[in-house]
Amino acid sequence: MGRRQLYYNSTYGLHCSSFLGPSATGDAVAGQMRVAAFLQPVDERYFEANGNAVAIYDYGLRLTRVA
Fold first, then answer.
1. 15: domain range?
2. Nearest-CA neighbor of 36 among 57, 60, 17?
3. What percent of the chain has pLDDT over 90?
4. pLDDT tens digit string along 35-64?
5. Domain of life, per the record (predicted)?
6. 2 assigned to some structural domain
């Protein structure tokens, strides 16, 4: 048996951030982002997923103004 690959290209993102204020390198913002990925109807497990996300990715972000 071969390994199955899930097919998804619908994602939704949720982002939360807060202003950290001035820093030595410029104004900074920190945040977190969560991305949820969903299957498409062409995937054989689409109905099994029942509209639920099949993958969730969490990222920590730090943005600093450079100019």
1. 8-64
2. 57
3. 15
4. 898 988 888 888 999 989 999 999 998 888
5. Eukaryota
6. no
Residue 39 burial class via C-beta count within 10 angstroms: exposed 0-12, middle 13-18, buried 19 and up: buried
Q: What is the dihedral of CA 47, 8, 41, 12, to 10 degrees?
A: 80
Domain count of the fold of the chain:
1
Q: φ and ψ at 48, to 5 degrees?
A: -65, -35
Residue 8: is it exposed, middle or buried by C-beta count within 10 angstroms (0-12/13-18/19+)?
middle
Strands, sheet with 26-39, edge to edge from the N-terminal-most edge strand: 8-23, 26-39, 55-64
Residue given tokens 């410029």 in the structure block? 26
**What is the C-alpha to C-alpha distance for residues 19 and 28, in angstroms, rounded to an integer?**
6
